[in-house]
Automatic annotation (TrEMBL):
Pfam families: Beta-prop_KIB1-4, F-box
Domain annotation F-box: ranges: 72-112
The protein's name: F-box domain-containing protein
Biased composition (Pro residues): 1-11
Length: 514
């Protein structure tokens, strides 16, 4: 059996990332890549503009001639644009050349508004396979964005952090994709997770996986063989990408089965590292070099990822009687941690849905304050002037004062049900609920806008590009998302460039010294 080819590290733009759309994201916004649904154009009317080459256009004599408005200095215009939500900012960059210049400068300096209001990202059959729809809670409007290959409707969405979606393609490989900028980055291969065993065909390509029979070095059940496209149905649970401010880099974290363990990868890693020996994790957050992970029993563990050797500290042990249907761990704006539990009812499925699996329906959300070393959780009744965002996203607690479009003392939630893959055609568990008054649950929008699969997710729009260090090993593994190039074509391409190469039995390419 051939060994697995080493997986590439986080792939940097311009090399092993999947091809970006052949468009400037801003121009795409004007032309239809980011536009209001149902609008024929996002570009303001040209009739009132001034042509600087010919001077102002004279109006008919019957009209009053308004005084020409001088252009704002670029630094003043940048201050104004920096206050906008990203959809408005991108449209503002389409107004004229000077506004586009201010927009470009604002973006290159990373001075645009950082505190963006989360939006609901979803797909719609009518919008097309490559289109993501973004529902703005500020404007109560929908924007459409065209994403790179593979089609979003063919992927699973397993997370959302820092403006990136974490998706799984039909080969069960994972990618980060920013729906605003189009930037897409391949994460280390699923074959590098400690107990995942790839099975190769005669050409050296992975075509099946041996689903693990053990976890944390303990045997649990007989291994099973499954096609590469089916692994994602039962393996990946939830994923995150965190900014490690101390190192100026990024860390990806994956909760995966069996038994919802944790693995992580830093930028530059070509494989995942398993965090042993605990399990049953449901959510994570990251702060100051510490990865906080919450389990279904109410346990909270802190993993120190800042050094070469990972250490773990138990922040809080299990709580007897704590038995929610879902758990979230949230960084509070005042500096502490909140453990949020969701209690659900399970309704009968719709008659036309197959298979007949009960549909979860969030009926109550409870808040608990986390005290380091405390034996029991302390329940909190409400969150005055604060808002929670819960689901497959990196769980958020925001100030309603800073985000006036949001309802204080409420939670905005989407599906986080771990068995979503088995009920793709069932309705989603999405809504808004007030703390302390659980009869206040309401629909986010009616009628429903989204397709039920892939699951809609909260995302905080971001124009920031993930800057990755140069890496000379980007050809050391499969280019996720790209079609396979025949060996003869590949050899001819490099021969024309005068570069001698060798290609191993697994398809790994190596450049030879002249």
């Amino acid at each position: 059996m051939a060994p697995a080819a080493p997986s590439p590290p986080f792939r940097r733009p311009g090399h092993s990332q999947i091809d970006l759309p052949p468009r400037d994201p801003l121009l795409a916004g004007c032309a239809g890549g980011v536009r209001r649904a149902g609008s024929s154009s996002a570009i303001p009317s040209q009739s009132a503009r001034v042509d600087r080459r010919r001077g102002p256009v004279s109006p008919p004599a019957s009209e009053a001639t308004p005084a020409a408005s001088p252009e704002l200095p670029e630094d003043i215009l940048m201050i104004v644009l920096a206050t906008l939500e990203i959809p408005d900012l991108m449209r503002a960059g389409c107004v004229c050349a000077s506004w586009r210049s201010a927009y470009t400068a604002l973006r290159s300096l990373d001075k645009h508004k950082q505190a963006q209001t989360p939006c609901l990202l979803y797909t719609s059959e009518s919008a097309g396979e490559h289109v993501a729809c973004l529902y703005s809670l500020v404007e109560k409007r929908v924007y459409r964005l065209t994403l790179p290959e593979p089609p979003l409707r063919h992927r699973f969405i397993i997370g959302s952090s820092l403006g990136f979606l974490v998706t799984v393609d039909d080969r069960s490989e994972m990618h980060l994709v920013n729906p605003i900028t189009g930037q897409q980055i391949a994460l280390p291969s699923v074959t590098t997770i400690e107990y995942m065993k790839p099975i190769f065909d005669d050409t050296g390509s992975v075509h099946e996986y041996e689903y693990p029979s053990h976890s944390a070095r303990r045997a649990f059940f007989t291994p099973s063989i499954m096609p590469r496209c089916e692994l994602r149905e039962c393996f990946q649970f939830k994923a995150f990408v965190f900014h490690d401010t101390s190192a100026g880099s990024y860390i990806a974290v994956l909760i995966h089965r069996p038994y919802t363990h944790l693995s992580f990868a830093r930028v530059g890693d070509d494989k995942w590292t398993l965090l042993e020996p605990h399990c049953d994790y449901q959510d994570c957050t990251y702060k100051d070099g510490l990865l906080y992970a919450a389990s279904t029993t109410g346990e909270i563990h802190a993993f120190d990822l800042s050094g070469p050797d990972v250490t773990m500290k138990i922040i809080k042990g299990g709580d007897e009687g704590f038995d929610p249907d879902a758990v979230h761990i949230v960084q509070a704006p005042w500096g502490g941690l909140l453990l949020v539990s969701r209690l659900k009812e399970f309704d009968d499925p719709d008659e036309d849905v197959d298979p007949k699996i009960p549909v979860p329906n969030t009926r109550e959300i409870k808040l608990h304050k986390v005290d380091d070393g405390a034996e029991r959780l302390v329940e909190v009744d409400c969150l005055p002037e604060h808002v929670l965002f819960l689901g497959l996203n990196d769980s958020l607690c925001l100030s309603a004062i800073d985000y006036p479009a949001l309802k204080g003392n409420h939670a905005y939630f989407t599906d986080d049900q771990q068995y979503n893959q088995a009920r793709k055609s069932s309705r989603r568990d999405i809504g808004v609920v007030g703390f302390g008054n659980y009869n206040s649950k309401e629909d986010l929008v009616s009628p429903q806008l989204w397709s039920n699969w892939p699951s809609p997710v909260w995302i905080t729009p971001s124009l920031t590009l993930m800057k990755l260090p140069p890496n000379d090993r980007w050809l050391s593994g499969p280019l996720c998302g790209l079609p396979k190039i025949e060996e003869g074509t590949l050899r001819g391409l490099f021969a024309n460039l005068g570069i001698p190469i060798s290609i191993g039995p697994t398809g790994m390419l190596q450049c030879l010294k002249k």
